[in-house]
């Protein structure tokens, strides 16, 4: 009889020794140093520390700091953590993003196998407390950028006439400055011809917390507020001077801008009511003039910049848009003529008594127009227009605000 071959390997010495244990022997003891690993249950403090890393996308503060989550809203059930997040409004457009971030941060803790996130809504008292906290004790209706100790640089982007690409320059310069590591906001003061929300990819309305507006965050993390967020599509805005002034005042005083390095203001063309109101509300604001090479546009742009002599604002430079169309052979096709930007620069320098530089000549580029329509500023890509706009952003980012109107923190010494 032939022996059957086992499909298992033959037992080695260890297994033979194990079979040789006498019946009724005591159970094997664990070797010294081998312990059973018991999963660690996270504490409330550990969960709150993790939640402190979740930043509200629009307010830009930890959700624990603005009481969207407090310890009493956290419950730990073994390896399952339950978190209730209080939103500022029931229709918060960023609830999904907040929920995902909470799940990721808490889920990364040792001992946590599942995170259950529940969304709630703040009551009136909680919203009032949040507004007071965000307001930082400032008096109601105060414009933070007009305070002498404000470190935010305010730049009003203006032009003499429409159609020169002023809003495109504003949106792309905002993205370029954000790319330099600055915290940037854009106020769309072109009440009748607003277009900034589309150009910066804004897809939802601002949140309102007890009368305080939280500006939506657009491309490159730029905060944006515009009258276009408050009127139905296709509806015209028909306001006179007092209403325009009131709207601008609300955008400056009733919006939680947070800690900005730069606030860009997209101005309407010309030197009308809005230009006068901005000079009154923000006396330390600066002016950036946008023109095209065309003589007719340059002459009107010069008048837009000359308002600085009457309002005591400073013109920081001129940007010439649509300067030329680059050709495949490296030459330039000057569709709108040439010299307009340089002319505005020279004439304003002579008129104002200080240098007003021509910061850049931005060429015609289809990508610039396409980016504006998609809500994706061209400065995030490569191309002649993108290069010129990034260069302007780099130059403006390196300029510091002057000491005019700012306290120096010194006091006279009595002898």
Task: Show the helix and strand layout.
Blueprint: H1 13-19, H2 44-51, E1 74-77, E2 80-87, H3 95-107, E3 114-121, H4 124-135, E4 153-158, H5 166-179, E5 184-188, H6 196-199, E6 207-209, E7 212-214, E8 223-226, H7 241-253, E9 262-266, H8 273-281, E10 286-291, H9 295-306, H10 308-311, E11 314-321, E12 325-326, E13 332-333, H11 340-352, E14 358-362, H12 366-374, H13 384-397
Parallel strand pairs: 2-3, 4-9, 4-10, 5-8, 5-9, 10-11, 11-14
Antiparallel strand pairs: 1-2, 6-7, 12-13
Gist of the model:
The chain is α/β, with parallel strands linked by helices and 415 residues long. It has helices spanning 13-19, 44-51, 95-107, 124-135, 166-179, 196-199, 241-253, 273-281, 295-306, 308-311, 340-352, 366-374, 384-397; strands at 74-77, 80-87, 114-121, 153-158, 184-188, 207-209, 212-214, 223-226, 262-266, 286-291, 314-321, 325-326, 332-333, 358-362. It has 13 helices and 14 strands.
Can you tell me about this structure?
With 415 residues, the protein is an alpha/beta fold. It contains 13 helices and 14 strands. The chain has helices at residues 13-19, 44-51, 95-107, 124-135, 166-179, 196-199, 241-253, 273-281, 295-306, 308-311, 340-352, 366-374, 384-397; strands at 74-77, 80-87, 114-121, 153-158, 184-188, 207-209, 212-214, 223-226, 262-266, 286-291, 314-321, 325-326, 332-333, 358-362. A seven-stranded parallel beta sheet has the order 8-5-9-4-10-11-14, with helices on both faces. A hairpin with a 2-residue loop joins strand 6 and strand 7. Residues 1-20 have low confidence and may be disordered.
